Model the fold of this input.
Amino acid sequence: MKLKWLSGLACLVLGTVTVYGQTVQNKDLKPTGKGWGERGTGALPAANPAAKARAGSNGISYHGGPVMTSGLNVYYIWYGWGGSYADTKAESILTNLVSTEGGSPYFNINSSYYNGSNVHVTNAVHYKGSTVDNYSQGKSLSDASIQTIVKNALPHLGVDTNAVYFVLTSADVNETSGFCTQYCGWHTSGSINGSDIKYAFVGNPARCLSACAAQTTSPNGTPGGDGMASIVAHELEEATTDPDLNAWYDSRGEENADKCAWTFGTESTASNGSKYNVVFGGTQYLIQRNWVNASGGYCSMSY
Ligand SMILES: [Zn+2]
Done:
């Protein structure tokens, strides 16, 4: 997941910035889950060596790893969100998002992706529940503490390998590996208590609306929460088609949602003057587009 002002300069960034400097090569690169490619390391799960990357005629390639074809379950871990940082509107719209986007023309874009047995992704998302973590790891988090937060939540939410666990932080919490400066969210997988657990971090853009939100007046009156909705959608799409960072991504290491980050297509104007481009469950959202793996490949809000 890139920052919006990085993605707006994608071509320039690709050519000139060090983080990309070594990645523009013919060989495919493994994504980090944080929105830009990097060379694969032993720390990442190995792709199936028998499955060569299929040259993608749609601008994205399959690398042999698992794809979440049956519809992901979603769990939310509300980290913080108490006291003066309560944002019940944000909690409401984020829960509504993953409760209603399954079955939509928007989520159906993911059904253009498939696994090594040619089984396509089902157009389904199942919201399964949430728990609250009251700052158990403090307000300055690392990547490792995100995994600890997920691990601590599993006894409450249940161990589910067909799920993505979202750590959603309140506005007084930072993620020090680069939230607001390098990324707005990320997803990955890890072995927790012996299970392959998919999880994601989505920070609160209220900390940095200029970097991680598309607008400062938002359709639901919570710029941080509305900004998070687009990031949650992005990470969910990537966790579906590239859960272990070894399935669907392009030659620059960009996953499906990365290829359309911060693009919204046709926008409408909400009653408060803000922009939205999709309605889920009666609620207006400004959600980024996703990459369709068909017809040569293109960003869209529907398929
Ligand atoms: Zn991404």
